[in-house]
Predict the structure.
Amino acid sequence: MANITLAVTGSISAYKAAELSNQLSKLGHHVTVLMSQSATQFITPLTLQSLSKNLVHTDVMLEEDPSSIKHIDIAKETDLFLVAPLSANTLAKLAHGTADNIITAVALALPVGKPKLVAPAMNTNMYLNPATQHNLHLLRSYGFEEIKPREALLACGDYGTGALADIDTILEKVRQTLHEKQ
């Protein structure tokens, strides 16, 4: 199966990454999990490590093996890069080429043409903000594909577009993307 890099960012929807990681592993994929520091406030790396059966990476500067450069190696080994959930903050960093954490560094190091999916999850006003929409447009121009958020009652109490896509929708998009790659 595929080497999937699952990047988890700081959104209340980060807890859903546990089910996503678990399902991807059950489908036979090798799942490498990357977490932003803010994501670790919503779900622990240990949870995702237990479900993915792999070390979870949270720090771009932590190099366990001096014979390799972690973010470069992860990027080279990745068959599919998936950010779920994608916060507005990480979206802006990806759109503008910032590489100040493990997620953004791996993303910037991905070989050209590598499949990249993002599943935004944020407040409706944040999602609809022109800056966010501009950043999504930039990501699409770089070859990222968006898995659109759902309209729902959000954790903040607002109703609107911004809820993470259903796990089944994300899994289907992963399947389609890997099938197209082959």
Notes: The longest strand covers residues 80-86. Residues 60 and 101 are 5 Å apart (CA to CA).
